[in-house]
């Protein structure tokens, strides 16, 4: 594979490949093996199109209209009508990276040859992606069953030269105009092709891939935040030692504890607090002591979700599907339940990881629990309020995350005249997880900002890795002092989490979190 190029074929894509195309604009190419198998299966569709026997999606209507035979002269119109009628999304536009992930995954299924589309259709889809043209897809329209129908239909509509797209610069253009400028001819759909373009779990899977990538980084940042709070609160690292973690062999827990322990080595704050802690405190609160248990469960849930994502990335989702034996078979593989479940599961652990972070932040602000620091970490308590309302912001986000943790996948609403009588709501699960990921990042940013202020107020040296993180933070956010406009400082810290600068600061000290 060439640098910054992803090859799409009969093999499975990886999560990182999906993210590189969706988020970083990598180009794509079709593998030679996929061109051959697509041609072979298309020949089978053409053969069936000439038969009198009804074949779903080839010579019949769709959904509850599957029993209606469509004469040959109306089949092109049938496919176009399908796309136009199903492009019925509403609400705000969906983010570009989500649409690009969705499109790449649909192209990946087309390239398996199991859908029966012509090579020209897959090639046009590829060229749309490589040209940086993003169809306008809307928030509402998918029930997560029969695929992400409305979102995928808006993409297929653009391929036909209809609807609207945004170019690389984000400008809104009529699809016909944008295609002409890019040298892409609008596709005239033939038998089964409209159906093949819209019948997959690609939207929810694409958002799962993006979320997994973000959450892997946030798992490391959660361990960093916990290590900073341990030092800022003059706690103990004894509970994180390997022999104690081995008594409960949960892999994520051991990993998280090892990260926190590594980040706390040779901390003057902790060394000076050691004797006082044994006499006066004995144990840290749960939000400190149990940090690896919660963050570890978060990591283990990520691992499970990654396995589900890998399985789905290896799938060819369409209905009907052309089997390797050349049969065209109806099936239920478009049902999004496996993806919906893990999307909901991730929203649950995101909420809990944010919750324990907020509890650590709150301890810094209470003089009865912060072990010698000013109330609310205020420079001049009473005149200044310090980080009082930063914790309010955290609390508001955590409360929202708890609402977002309510599972979407337990809901179902019948559609298509009761033909599609049980749906996954996986798209809805994906949409709320994206909001939850953003919320977790903001909660961790506030904990890190607060812990850094507390450490500075101690006047003692933290561990070298934490000192490096605080130094990087101080390039963007001032240190201890009278009250300032706090919102920009929170946003700057969020940016440092998003762009990887804080983890980069750790790497510069020789620490790479796992």
TrEMBL record:
* Superkingdom of origin: Bacteria
Q: What Gene3D superfamilies does its record include?
A: Fumarase/aspartase (Central domain) (1.20.200.10), Fumarase/aspartase (N-terminal domain) (1.10.275.10)
GO molecular function (one) = histidine ammonia-lyase activity
Q: Which CDD domains does its entry note?
A: PAL-HAL
Q: What is its main location?
A: cytoplasm
* The entry's keywords: Histidine metabolism, Lyase
Q: Does the keyword Hydrolase apply?
A: no
This enzyme catalyses: L-histidine = trans-urocanate + NH4(+)
**Protein name, per record:** Histidine ammonia-lyase
Provide the taxonomic classification.
Bacteria, Bacillati, Actinomycetota, Actinomycetes, Mycobacteriales
């Amino acid at each position: 594979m060439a640098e910054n190029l992803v090859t799409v074929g009969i093999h499975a894509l990886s999560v990182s490949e999906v993210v590189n195309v969706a988020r970083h604009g990598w180009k794509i190419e079709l593998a030679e093996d996929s061109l051959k198998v697509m041609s072979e299966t298309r020949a089978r569709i053409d053969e069936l199109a000439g038969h009198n026997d009804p074949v779903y999606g080839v010579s019949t209507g769709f959904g509850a209209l599957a029993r209606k035979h469509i004469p040959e002269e109306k089949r092109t119109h049938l496919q176009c009508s399908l796309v136009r009628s199903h492009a019925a999304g509403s609400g705000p536009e969906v983010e570009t990276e989500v649409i690009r992930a969705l499109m790449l995954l649909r192209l990946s299924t087309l390239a398996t040859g199991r859908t029966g589309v012509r090579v020209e259709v897959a090639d046009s889809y590829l060229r749309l992606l490589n040209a940086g043209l993003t169809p306008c897809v809307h928030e509402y329209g998918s029930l997560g069953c029969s695929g992400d129908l409305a979102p995928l239909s808006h993409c297929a509509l653009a391929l036909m030269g209809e609807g609207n797209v945004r170019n690389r610069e984000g400008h809104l253009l009529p699809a016909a105009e944008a295609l002409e400028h890019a040298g892409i001819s609008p596709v005239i759909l033939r038998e089964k092709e409209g159906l093949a373009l819209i019948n997959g779990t690609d939207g929810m899977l694409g958002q799962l891939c993006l979320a997994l990538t973000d959450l892997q980084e946030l798992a490391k940042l959660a361990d960093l935040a916990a290590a900073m709070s341990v030092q800022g609160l003059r706690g103990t690292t004894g509970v994180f030692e390997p022999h104690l973690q081995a008594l409960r062999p949960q892999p994520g827990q051991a990993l998280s504890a090892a990260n926190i322990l590594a980040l706390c080595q040779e901390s003057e704050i902790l060394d000076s607090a050691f004797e006082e802690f044994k006499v006066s405190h004995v144990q840290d609160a749960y939000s400190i002591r149990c940090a690896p248990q919660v963050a570890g469960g978060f990591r283990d849930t990520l691992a499970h979700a990654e396995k589900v994502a890998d399985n789905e990335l290896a799938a060819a989702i369409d209905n009907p599907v052309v089997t390797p034996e050349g049969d065209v078979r109806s099936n239920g593989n478009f049902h999004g339940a496996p993806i919906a479940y893990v999307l909901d599961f991730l929203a649950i652990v995101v909420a809990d990881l944010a919750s324990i972070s907020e509890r650590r932040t709150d301890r810094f602000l209470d003089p009865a629990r912060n072990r010698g620091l000013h109330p609310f970490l205020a420079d001049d308590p009473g005149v200044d309020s310090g980080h009082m309302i930063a914790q309010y912001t955290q609390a508001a986000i955590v409360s929202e995350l708890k609402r977002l943790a309510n599972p979407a996948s337990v809901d179902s609403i019948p559609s298509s005249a009761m033909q599609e009588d049980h749906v996954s709501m996986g798209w809805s699960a994906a949409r709320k997880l994206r909001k939850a990921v953003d919320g977790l990042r903001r909660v961790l940013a506030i904990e890190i900002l607060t812990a850094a202020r507390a450490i500075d107020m101690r006047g003692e040296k933290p561990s070298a890795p934490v000192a490096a993180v605080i130094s990087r933070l101080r390039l963007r956010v001032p240190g201890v002092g009278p009250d300032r406009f706090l919102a920009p400082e929170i946003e700057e810290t969020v940016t440092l989490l998003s762009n990887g600068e804080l983890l980069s600061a750790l790497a510069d000290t020789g620490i790479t979190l796992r």
